[in-house]
Amino acid sequence: GMDERSTFRGGMFGAGLEQRQVQAGLEGTLELSLGSAHQFSASVQVGAEGVEVSTEARARGWGRLGALLVDDIQWGAFTVSPSVRVDQSGPFTTFSPKLGAGARLPLGLELRANAGQSARAPSFSELYVVQGTLLPNAALRPERGLVADAGVGQQLEKGRWNVAGYHALYEDLIAYELYPPFLAKPFNFAAARAYGVEADGEWRPAPWLSAAAGYTLTLSENLRDDPRYYGRELPYRPRHRAWGRVVGGPEWLKGRAEVLAQSGQVVNRAATVVLPARAFVNVGVSATPLRGPDVTVSAELKNLLDVQGADLDGYPLPGRAAYVTVSIALDAGRRRDEGRP
User: Fold this and answer.
1) What distances in angstroms separate CA 13 from CA 4, 8, 174, 215, one per listed residue?
2) Residue 13 to residue 187: CA distance in whole angstroms
3) What is the full DSSP assignment across 198-221?
4) Measured distance CA(129)–CA(145) in Å, rounded
5) Burial class (CB in 10 A: 0-12, 13-18, 19+), 207
6) What is the pLDDT of residue 166?
7) Do the Cβ atoms of 51 and 19 come closer than 8 Å?
8) 72-126 pLDDT, tens per residue?
9) Which phi and psi (to 5°) does residue 222 adopt?
10) What is the average per-residue pLDDT within 7-19?
C-alpha cells in the first residue's frame, strides 16, 4: 500500500496545491503442470487507488481487477504459449490476447515469435494525479494495439546473442507531451506505429572476464493527426539506444565499466523541443572481504565524464556522482551450499 502527500507551489500552481494519493493492492499466482506437455499459470491482481486534491471539491477513486492466464505447451523442441489478460480499471475494460511460439534448433539456435493485441487503460495517475512536472489529463481514452515480434538467438560455449524485430500499430496511443512553458501532460494519438530491431549479446572469454552489449533501433510515426505532424516521430522515443558493459576480476574483487547512450528525442508532436543525445559512462569496483555472512563493499562513479542530459526539458539528470555502499548477505553461505545462485 501507499499513502503519499504532496505540496506544489509556484509557477502554474500559484499559491499552492495540496494532494494526497493512496494505493493498496494484492496479487496471487498459481502454477500447475497438466501432464508433461502443459505448464499452466494464472495470476490475479486486485487493488484500489484514490486521490484528494485541495483545488477539487471531491476525492476521486476507483478499483482495479486484473487476471492473466497462460498455457505453455511443449512438443519436443517446439513451444506454443497462448495467453489472455483481462483488466478492469475503474470504468475501463481491456482485453489482451497473445500467442507465442518458439523452437530449439541444432547448434544452440532458438527461434521465437509473438503476435497479439495489446490494450492499456489510462492509469489513475495519468488521469487524475499531479506527478511533479507531469500533469494529469482526465480526458484520456484507452489505447489499443496490434503487436508482433520475431527473433533468433544462440547459446554458445562462451557467450550468447539475440536479434529480434518488432512492429506495433496503435489506436489512441497514450504518450506524454511537453509544450513550454507548460508542464508535460499525456495525450492520445489517434493512430501511430512503432517498429525496429533489438540486438544484444554477451561474451565470456575467461572465468574472470565478461563483456555484454545491446542496441535498439526504434522508428515511430504519427499516422493520423494534423497534416503538419503526419509522419513525424512520436515523443519520448529515441531512435537509437545502445549500452555496453565489461566486468572483470576474481569473485572477491570485481571491477566494472559501462556506457549508456541514446540519440536525441523530441518531446512533443510539433517537435518544438528536442532533448539532445547523450552518453553516460559509469565505473565501479566491489570487494567481498568477509564470508559467512558475506560483506561486500562497493564504490561507484556515475556519469564519470559529467555529461549534461535530461529526460524532461528543464530538469537535468545528475552530473558526476560518487557512491559507496556496504551490503551484508546473511544467507549467502547457505545458498552456495545448496547450489543456488
Assistant:
1) 19, 6, 24, 40
2) 21
3) EEEEEEEEETTEEEEEEEEEEEEE
4) 25
5) exposed
6) 98
7) yes
8) 999 989 999 999 999 999 999 999 999 999 999 999 999 999 999 999 999 999 9
9) -85, 115
10) 82
According to DSSP, residue 13 is labeled G
Q: How far apart are CA 92 and CA 123, in angstroms?
A: 10
Which set of grid coordinates corresponds to residue 129? 494525479
Q: Rounded to an integer, what distance in angstroms lies between the CA atom of residue 299 and that of residue 324?
A: 4
Return d(Cα 298, Cα 316) in angstroms, integer: 26
Cell of 246: 565489461
Whether residue 177 contacts residue 184, with contact meaning beta carbons closer than 8 Å, is answered with yes
3-class SS of residue 267: coil
> Cα–Cα distance between 117 and 84 in angstroms, integer?
10
Are residues 306 and 292 in contact, defined by beta-carbon separation less than 8 angstroms?
no
- Helical (H) or strand (E) element with 336: helix 332-337
Q: Provide the 3-class DSSP secondary structure of residue 11.
A: helix
Model pTM? 0.84
Centre a 10 Å sphere on the Cβ of residue 305 and count the other Cβ atoms it contains: 10
136 neighbors 130 (Cβ within 8 angstroms)? yes
List, as one string, the DSSP characters of 106-136.
Answer: GGGEEEEEEEEEEEEPPPHHHHH--BTTB--
Strands (E), the chain: 2-8, 17-34, 38-53, 60-75, 78-89, 92-104, 109-120, 143-156, 159-177, 185-206, 209-222, 240-248, 253-262, 265-266, 274-275, 278-290, 294-302, 310-312, 315-316, 321-329
Q: For residues 196 and 214, is the Cβ–Cβ distance under 8 A?
A: no
Nine cell digits for residue 326: 556496504
Grid coordinates representing 43? 495470476
Beta bridge partners of 266: 274
> What is the average per-residue pLDDT within 130-150?
93
Closest residue by Cα to residue 273 from 310, 298, 303: 310
Query: What whole-number distance in Å separates Cα of residue 272 and Cα of residue 173?
Result: 20
The three cell numbers of residue 85 are 489478460
